[in-house]
Design goal:
The structure holds three protein chains of three kinds.
Chain A (H helix, E strand, L loop, with lengths): L5 H19 L4 H22 L10 H31 L8 E7 L4 H13 L3 E9 L4 E8 L7 H16 L5
Antiparallel strand pairs in A: 1-3, 2-3
Helix pairs in contact in A: 1-2, 3-5, 4-5
Chain B lengths: L1 H23 L3 H26 L3 H26 L4
Helix pairs in contact in B: 1-2, 2-3
Chain C lengths: L1 H26 L3 H30 L3 H31 L12 H6 L2
Classes of the chains: A alpha+beta, B mainly alpha, C mainly alpha.
Chain lengths: ~180, ~90, ~110
């Protein structure tokens, strides 16, 4: 169990207070003070479960704008393409599906980077990340991806086809 | 106003179509997938209905449904993996 | 009037992809393919409705609270859906659920089942 740190408490407090304002949507002084007290209690109790590393990494402007650029420009295009492919398969009668599980290497080292890549892969229809494995000798992480239409079985080529664009965008944020 | 009502009814009908997979599905994972999709579709229908009627209470219900809809999926997934919940 | 047409286009996009996801859930041959199809519902299906709803609530109804709430609903579904999908797929695989037809390649079974 970790110790509670101050930046983690502040970050959790901001999120909880934003949710309080969202749910009540009134700006009188009594409601704001009650919300501040409640979310401070929640932040003191629960911050050590949520944040394990640096809490203020998003305050860095370069990282913030590359993150924003990825989620607003690169990712919606991939999402649209994958959705149209999926809709074509479904409206064509679900005949030409060819499912399989492929093992794919990823270049990400940190936990947050692996989580971001695997969640982006899962969010595009047609691919689901099923397991993350670590290779201690090569210092690499591998993802097991369920793919609805297997075109390549070679790990490197399959990785390029599944997550080439996504990983290029995300490597600017995490290493 | 009527076009939004038609869209809301269409989403509700899609959610009702998922009941077939919820009843027939061969195993627990199939049933959970259908339940998750039903949750999202009902959330959409509730957003549209709150825009039609102009009352904010439906949005609160949709928000909480979207928040807590994830918990049962995770619970069933962990139960299938380990033989016990969480 | 233009606003209504734009909102209707977004709702129609959401409805088409929700229909695709629902048909996929009903018709796909095995469990994991059904999970892939259900991702279609929760990404572009809800996202189309949420974008249209935000536009209509902010410009047509002048209600900031409704717009912010709809945007947060879309964001929450978009963040939480991959976690549930991943946990459910892994749990189903570990519980021994396999498709009837043999899969093209099965690296997970090759590495962990021996």
């Amino acid at each position: 169990m970790q110790k509670t740190k101050l930046p983690a408490v502040v970050a959790t407090f901001v999120v909880c207070f934003a949710f309080w304002i969202l749910l009540t949507w009134s700006f009188s002084a009594q409601e704001l003070i009650a919300g501040a007290v409640v979310s401070l209690c929640v932040a003191l109790f629960a911050a050590r479960f949520f944040i394990h590393k640096k809490a203020g990494w998003l305050a860095n402007p370069a990282k913030f704008f590359s993150c924003l650029g990825f989620w607003l420009c690169i990712f919606p295009v991939e999402l649209w393409k994958a959705n149209v492919n999926m809709a074509k398969i479904v409206f064509g009668g679900c005949k030409n599906v060819n499912p399989g599980i492929v093992k794919v290497p990823t270049a990400m080292k940190s936990d947050y980077g692996v989580a971001a890549v695997s969640n982006s892969i899962t969010l595009t229809p047609g691919t689901i990340t099923m397991e993350v494995a670590e290779d201690p000798q090569e210092q690499r992480n591998y993802l097991y991806v369920h793919w609805i239409n297997v075109e390549e079985t070679d790990p490197a080529k399959a990785g390029e086809a599944i997550k080439g664009t996504l990983e290029k965008g995300l490597r600017r944020v995490w290493q | 106003m009527s076009d939004m009502l038609i869209f809301a009814i269409c989403f509700a009908v899609l959610a009702a179509l998922n009941l077939y997979r919820l009843a027939v599905g061969p195993n627990a994972a199939d049933r959970m997938v259908a339940g998750d999709a039903m949750d999202n579709l009902i959330c959409c229908a509730m957003i549209l209905f709150s825009l039609i009627s102009g009352r904010g209470i439906y949005l609160d219900i949709a928000l909480l449904s979207a928040l807590f809809g994830i918990i049962d999926t995770i619970l069933v997934g962990r139960y299938l993996e380990k033989g016990r919940g969480l | 009037m233009v606003l209504r047409i734009v909102c209707d286009v977004f709702f129609l996009i959401g409805l088409i992809f929700a229909l695709a996801g629902t048909l996929g859930i009903l018709k796909m041959p095995d469990t994991f393919s059904r999970m892939q199809a259900s991702t279609c519902v929760s990404t572009l299906g809800t996202l189309g409705v949420c974008i249209g709803g935000v536009l209509y609530a902010a410009i047509g109804m002048h209600s900031a609270s409704a717009a912010v709430k709809i945007a947060v609903i879309g964001l929450l579904i978009l963040i939480t859906n991959p976690i549930g999908s991943h946990v459910l797929a892994r749990g189903a695989y570990k519980a021994g659920i396999r498709p009837e037809k043999k899969m093209e390649t099965d690296d997970l079974g090759r590495d962990f089942d021996e």
